[in-house]
Design a protein that fits this description.
Layout: H1 2-35, H2 45-64, H3 71-100, H4 115-125, H5 146-157, H6 163-167, H7 176-202, H8 223-260, H9 268-285, H10 289-323, H11 340-378
Helix pairs in contact: 1-2, 1-8, 1-9, 1-10, 2-8, 2-9, 3-7, 3-8, 5-10, 8-9, 10-11
Length: 385
């Protein structure tokens, strides 16, 4: 792709990393402000969010400027990996238990409209033994949300930009496609095991950070174990970001330095601060986790659907120009990658899908709220409200 292509690719990785850090900061702030509110007044919820975001930002920025590599961080990340598996298992198990014992007649009359309020009301009144109280069902398909679902789904499985680092120490590189395929299948399967029953059970009360719905977990079995399960599911995703955020900041700082160091001469700590601080401010301004994840997903689309195809096409042409026709076919290829016509189609589709999702996301985040505000202002019935 040449130097312009390299800069475009690294630029996409940089923007994706910024959006990912933005989403991580929002998740931590939302988790702590919902689970440990500083005030019972809902109007002060944003102050709790900002306070916890500030605390997380200070800790994350400090860690991002330190040398956190080594055996300890390796062991910590391995422990967090096992913890994510345990979280997934607990979420699926408790959801299954709740679905099997759910009240088929729906909401309790007169209950608070929030999941936590309904669960607490049911427990206090002794009217239900269910672990959760069912809510209004969510629509199974909504065209307006298709773009967000697609981009958020892409955001959840993007790791292509890390493949060279992951593949380098592997002795048998021919088996990597199988290993990566199994990894993607495992991750997608875990997401489906959690998301489908969660949407079916929580309905319209399903939160963007679905683990926060477990704040309403009120089972009838042994209370200490129930409290442990509830707090683990609610807090662990945010806790695991304590190591993920600074590590991604270091990766982002290295990418920015590789692209901009010829023009801007900064010390390593300055690059890390430029990587770690802006997402915290962005999270303070915009705290819609679904919207932020959709933005990250748009950049993830470019990393998945655009650059790999372009790299395949351009590298093939260079190899065949130097070594002859067919020299670009290797053991790592497939039926699709051996067809130049097929790769051209993939390139066109990838560019079209990425551009369409980018436009749709910009419309939903920027233009749609402005249109709604304009219609409200032009409506005579809304004047004076």
């Amino acid at each position: 792709l040449g130097e312009p292509g390299r800069r475009a690719y690294v630029g996409s990785v940089i923007l994706y990393c910024y959006a990912s850090l933005w989403a991580y900061a929002v998740l931590v702030g939302q988790t702590l402000s919902v689970a440990l509110p500083m005030s019972e007044d809902p109007e002060n919820a944003e102050y709790s969010y900002w306070f916890y975001l500030l605390c997380f930002g200070l800790a994350a920025v400090f860690m991002a400027t330190r040398n956190i590599t080594g055996p300890f961080m390796t062991a910590l990340n391995l422990g967090f990996s096992y913890g994510r598996v345990l979280t997934c298992f607990l979420m699926v198990a408790t959801l299954t238990h709740a679905v099997l014992r759910a009240d088929p007649h729906g909401l309790l009359q007169g209950a608070d409209p929030t999941p936590l309020g309904r669960a607490m009301a049911a427990t206090a009144a002794g009217e239900s033994d269910d672990t959760f109280v069912p809510s209004a069902p969510a629509p199974m398909f909504r065209l307006a949300g298709a773009v967000q679902v697609f981009t958020v789904s892409i955001f959840s499985v993007v790791f292509q930009h890390s493949i060279p680092t992951l593949a380098e120490p592997a002795a048998d590189k021919r088996s990597l496609h199988t290993s990566f395929g199994h990894t993607v299948a495992l991750v997608v399967g875990a997401y489906l095991l959690i998301s489908l029953p969660a949407v079916a059970y929580f309905g319209m009360d399903c939160l963007a950070a679905v683990n926060l719905n477990w704040a309403a977990y009120q089972p009838t079995y042994w209370a200490p174990l129930a409290s442990l399960v509830r707090n683990f599911i609610v807090f662990f995703p945010a806790l695991s970001l304590v190591s993920t955020y600074p590590l991604l900041c270091i990766t982002l700082a290295n990418n920015m330095s590789s692209v901009l160091s010829t023009r801007v001469n900064l010390p390593a700590i300055a690059w890390r601060l430029l990587a770690a601080v802006p997402p915290i401010f962005l999270a303070a301004l915009v705290s819609d986790l679904t919207a932020v994840s959709a933005v990250a997903g748009v950049f993830g689309l470019a990393l998945i659907l655009v650059f790999p195809v372009l790299l395949q096409l351009f590298s093939r042409r260079i190899v065949e120009a130097r070594c002859g026709k067919g020299a670009a076919f290797t053991a790592y290829g497939s039926v699709v990658t051996r067809s130049e016509w097929g790769m051209n189609v993939f390139a066109f589709v990838g560019l079209a899908v990425t551009a369409a999702c980018a436009v749709a996301t910009c419309y939903q985040l920027l233009l749609a709220p402005l249109f709604t505000l304009a219609v409200h202002d032009l409506n005579p019935n809304s004047w004076g409200r």
